[in-house]
Amino acid sequence: MTKLESIDYTLEYPYTRSTGPVWGPFLTGLRDGKILGARIGNKIYCPPLEFDPETAAAAEPDLVEVGPGGTVSGWTWVTKPTTKHPFDHPFAFALIVLDGADTAMAHAIDAKTEAAMRTGMRVSAQFRDERVGAVTDVYFVPEADAVDQEIAAGDEPVAITIHSIGVDISEPLSPHRVRFAEGLRNGKIIGQKSPTSGLVYVPGRGYDNMERVRMDESCDVEVADVGTVVAYTTISPIQYHGQTETEPYIRCSILLDGADQPLGGIDIRDMTPEEFRTGMRLKCVWRPPEERDYSDLDNRGGGLTEGVYERWEPTGEPDVDFESIKEHTW
């Protein structure tokens, strides 16, 4: 289970905004192969600003072309790029004072090696073959590596900009979560029994938050993969950017035999709300071991995901009386 020693995932959402009278021309310029700065007072700022940074007063800047060459005033080397970086190989982020500008622009330099970078070096802008009116339409290279480009201007000014904002996150998986995942791999559901109250929690959290005591591996217990529905709701997916769900489905909580805490977040897709009910008895039908997917497992709770089971099916046993499970409903 070494692949579960850490969790790697991306937190991402789309960001859409109008560009306005300053950034609109700036992004349009990048799409069309030129870099614009803003003349405010006696200085030219690049990237352009909508205000005077010395007085904080609103400005109506005079936009002028700067670059494409510039001088590096500071830099850092990125050894391991993420999916959100502009290159899939090592590169530099640098402060670049473009020719004709008085301030530095932070941007990426595609240098071949870290040894090729130095403060005071000359660089030149290069524009990507496919441009959309974004700051990523341009990047920089050492001046000796620059090539001539013919850039065709677009038809309309850039009025709206859309970006996918995200961050890649990696964190160690807690030991009790690793043991829980190992149980799932073997078709077992592992909970933890409080050494103080004797209550069994599924999945375990590494501590009993009611008694305020830690629970280690000695507290691990196996519970059944059969249980009773104690609560459920029907979910009708709202469509949004990145939404993959399209059809309504049931999400329920199941009190597994041998547990004192319901297992929540169980999705049921092959039964209708009309035939589903609290008190019914269900059994987990596991996916084959080689098909079980643990990628949704993290440290923030949750138990069984659809990556490890095919479905939950009725056992055929009589329903459990509501009075005996009412303390577990929500």
Mean pLDDT over all positions: 91
Outline, from the CA principal axes? elongated
- Percent range for helical residues? under 10%
Low-pLDDT stretches are none
Q: Strand order within the widest sheet?
A: 7-6-5-8-9
- Tally of domains: 2
Gap between N and C termini? 34 Å
**Radius of gyration over all CA atoms, rounded:** 29 Å
Structural class by SSE content: mainly beta
From N to C, what is the helix and strand string? EHEEEEEEEEEHEEEEEEEEEE
| Count of helical stretches | 2
Biggest sheet features: 5 strands, antiparallel
What is the strand content?
Answer: 35-45%
Helix and strand arrangement:
Elements: E1 6-18, H1 20-31, E2 35-40, E3 43-45, E4 62-66, E5 69-78, E6 91-98, E7 104-109, E8 122-127, E9 138-142, E10 160-172, H2 175-185, E11 189-193, E12 200-201, E13 207-208, E14 213-214, E15 220-223, E16 226-235, E17 249-256, E18 263-268, E19 281-286, E20 309-314
Antiparallel strand pairs: 1-10, 2-3, 2-4, 5-6, 5-8, 6-7, 8-9, 11-12, 11-15, 13-14, 16-17, 16-19, 17-18, 19-20
